[in-house]
Amino acid sequence: xxxxxxxxxxxxxxxxxYHENASAAEPGWASKCSKFGALKPNENPSFQHMNCLLxxxxxxxxxxxxxxxxxxxxxxxxxxxxxxxxxxxxxxxGGIGIMQITNKPDLDQESLKNDVYYNxxxxxxxxxxxYTRTDIPKIKNTGRHDIESWYFAVMAYNGTKPVNSxxxxxxxxxxxAYQEKVFRNxxxxxxxxxxxxxxxxxxxSDFDYNRDSTDNIxxxxxxxxxxxxxxxxxxxxxxxxxxxxxIDGAVLRSGPGTGSTxxxxxxxxxALTINGDFVYDTSANPNQFVWIPVVTSxxxxxxxxxxxxTKPVCTPCLQYKKGQKIYWEKYKWELVPGLLGRLTILxxxxxxxxxxxxxxxxxxxxxxxxxxxxxxxxRVGAGQFVKREPKKVSYETPSKAKLDAVKCIANFY
Length: 413
Known about the structure:
Order of helices and strands: HHHEEHHEHHEEEEEEEEEEEEEEEEEEEH
Number of domains: 3
Shape: globular
CATH topology of the largest domain: Lysozyme
Strand content: 15-25%
CATH class of the largest domain: Mainly Alpha
Distance between the termini: 48 Å
Helix content: 10-25%
Largest sheet: 6 strands, antiparallel
């Protein structure tokens, strides 16, 4: 564990959060992972067992599991408590185990080294405490279950030192700040498919520090409002709650794993109803997401990756209503599902079939609706296409917001 976490542990000791020789063996939250089997001395649990332990501990302390797992990945990339010889993982600065708790005599050192439960619990306790601190900034327009609300708590877990300022003294973003790395872990491992967390807009004046000093950063700005759609944790949904897909092509499967049969491919913003508790991935792959049982609007039942769903309030869909018509005002076209844009012929050009044969010549000035892309081809429907040659054709598309609106309305109950 890095600099400030050492100080934080001492603070928690002073506040009575830790006790000498405390034991966290088989805590209540860990019983939720009993289906993975018992832990064996000096052996790491399977990846999905560790996924369950990190997730269950996070939920027990009301922390988004995505955040806990992002931190664990940054502290200990392979989620290992023990090395190949069965010895506890100890870093050069004394950090122990999966959560890299600093080896302090006031903690139960043997439990930190040899008790996976204890190590995880103490790390999550520290992270949860960081969220309550009043001397670090808050994100005002977020809640505790929103991943973005944990930005400064994650920073504090590692240390509010100059090295973790999200912006340099020259005003350049600092991608190597600890919390920036953790947020990238979350994006890569929990959100997937290009999902991006939203962060505040920082100014140099927001962070008062001397880059040549080890003193903590001072925060002249203590509250931020972020612009954009936040990401609520996928682990606090309840049965019968409504969610929506976040991407085109999300796959509903018959079981909790990519090897399960495909039930249906879903469009972006498809409405779903939670049908039970999430379950862990059944594959051998190190997937950090979980699978959520859902029912579609046409009563299809299956599982969907937690990476691809969110609350409807976190999509643009609520501003529209069922049956509403969306228009591309420039051309007074009503936009319908599948319509992607407009093709204008600039020079006579051939219309081709799927096998590459010429169907007929399209004349200069003719206009067509486009329903799909395939490499450099503009698809006009009926298995026919025009090659995308800038001197011969012009292609325009409505705004992304318009296309998303069509998807929203098409997927309403």
